[in-house]
Each structure stands twice: as C-alpha cells, then as structure tokens.
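Worked Example 4.2. Consider the chain below.
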Amino acid sequence: MNLYMVHVGYYDPFIGEGLYEVHMNFFTVAESAKIAKEKVTDKKEFQEKKMHIDGIKLLSYVDGYKVSLVEDKNPKKDQILGYDESKKL
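Applying the procedure from the previous section yields the following structure tokens:
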C-alpha cells in the first residue's frame, strides 16, 4: 500500500462569487494512483462540490524520511493543533 496526496480544486459560489478556484488536499492509502483517484472521486464531498483533480502525488519520502505504512485495527485520533495552539509553539 502507498500513501497518496490528491490535490483537488473546485469553485465555491460563496467565495468571491465563485470566480476563484479553491484548492485542498485529500490523503489516501491505495495500491495505485488509479485506485487513489477512484477513492477520492467516490467521496460525497468531492461529488457535492463538483471537484476536479489537479494532481496526484505518491508520498514515499518526506524531508529525507521514507514513509512506511502499518495497518492498525484500532487507530486513535491524532491531535489537532488549532490556530491558537499552533501560534504558541
């Protein structure tokens, strides 16, 4: 299994009257880029916002570290640092 970043874009009518393209990234685990694409395009949010894929990147290395995936049957929620917490770091 591989880790992929799928970079998507869409036009939101509530942002700049829909003139500006908004972007975001989905991270997904898949055997291939094609399957990663299928997993993202199947997402309800992707379909509702009429998103399109601008690019797909295989994430094998990050900052000189090799990415290794280990399946976990009981994953725990990761900590999220919000604006205020991040600012204090």
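Helices lie at 33-41, 44-48, 83-88. The chain is about 20% helix and 35% strand. Compare this with Example 4.1 before moving on.
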